[in-house]
């Protein structure tokens, strides 16, 4: 009598392994959450950009006896709704604030920062204004987080 010895896996065993791998893959994808990670990275870039613009305006003010760049004339109380868009370097945007003197010759900014997802050919995606306390506010209205990024000095 010959015994039939089968080598290999049964269909049930293969399906069970595939199901376990699918569950583990789903757990890893949920834990990593690439969309959230990308959003957080973009918001970090926005925070750095807003601070860089504000630092450049502040340094310009120090170097020019307290005067702000000429185009910053908008006063308001809410940076997201009252502020004016910052124009791209060298772009003639209508109704926006040109901060070209900050990026000329790399004196205050080596280049005009751009929002990772809100910039266009004419605007940077950031806004600027003077608040009620005569302080400059720069903001990033289009964030991935719940709150817009607003920095004042």
Account of the 3D structure:
One of its GO terms (biological process) is protein secretion by the type II secretion system. The chain crosses the membrane at residues 12-32. InterPro entries: N_methyl_site, Pilin-like, T2SS_protein-GspH. The protein is rod-shaped, with a radius of gyration of 26 Å. It has helices spanning 11-32, 34-63, 79-82, 100-103, and strands spanning 84-87, 123-130, 136-140, 149-152. The termini are far apart. 39% of the residues lie in helices and 14% in strands. The mean pLDDT is 91. Strands 1-2-3-4 form a four-stranded antiparallel β-sheet. The protein is α+β, with helices and mostly antiparallel strands and 153 residues long.
Q: Would you tell me the structural class of the helices and strands?
A: alpha+beta
Number of strands: 4
Q: Write the element-wise H/E pattern from the N-terminal end onward.
A: HHHEHEEE
**Beta content:** 5-15%
Please state the CA-atom Rg, rounded to the nearest Å.
26 Å
Figure out the total of helices. Answer: 4
Query: pLDDT average, as an integer?
Result: 91
- What's the domain count? 1
Query: Which strand order do you get reading across the main beta sheet?
Result: 1-2-3-4
Uncertain stretches: none
Q: Quick one: biggest sheet?
A: 4 strands, antiparallel
């Amino acid at each position: 009598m010959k015994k039939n010895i089968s080598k290999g896996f049964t269909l049930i065993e293969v399906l069970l392994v595939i199901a376990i791998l699918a569950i583990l893959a789903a757990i890893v994808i949920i834990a990593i959450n690439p969309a959230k990670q990308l959003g957080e990275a973009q918001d970090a870039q926005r925070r750095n950009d807003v601070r860089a613009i504000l630092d450049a305006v502040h340094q310009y003010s120090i170097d020019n006896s307290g005067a702000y760049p000429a185009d910053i004339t908008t006063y308001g109380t809410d940076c997201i709704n009252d502020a004016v868009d910052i124009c791209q370097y060298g772009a003639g945007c209508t109704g926006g604030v040109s901060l070209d003197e900050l990026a000329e010759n790399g004196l205050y900014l080596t280049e005009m920062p751009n929002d990772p997802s809100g910039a266009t050919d004419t605007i940077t995606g950031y806004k600027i204004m003077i608040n009620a306390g005569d302080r400059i506010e720069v903001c990033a209205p289009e964030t991935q987080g719940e709150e817009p990024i607003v920095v004042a000095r």
